[in-house]
Amino acid sequence: MKILGNIVGVVLLLVGALWTLQGANVLAGSVMSGQSQWLYIGIVLLIVGLVALYWTNMRKPMPRR
User: Fold this and answer.
1) CB–CB of 48/14 below 8 Å?
2) Domain chopping of the chain, boundaries
3) pLDDT tens readout for residues 41-63
4) Judging by beta carbons within 10 Å of its beta carbon (0-12, 13-18, 19+), is residue 49 exposed, middle or buried?
């Protein structure tokens, strides 16, 4: 479960970074370039990705019986 959480967190970070850069018009050549809504959506995805990584890696493992 920890591996899946890390994969999801990293994917969210990468997509969020891409959308943030496109929304800020740093990466041009896309329909999303220069559109501020993608900047905000990207920032939200970055935050969600960071929270997912933090939550996945800071949880204490369940004790085995």
Assistant:
1) no
2) 2-58
3) 999 999 999 999 999 999 777 77
4) buried
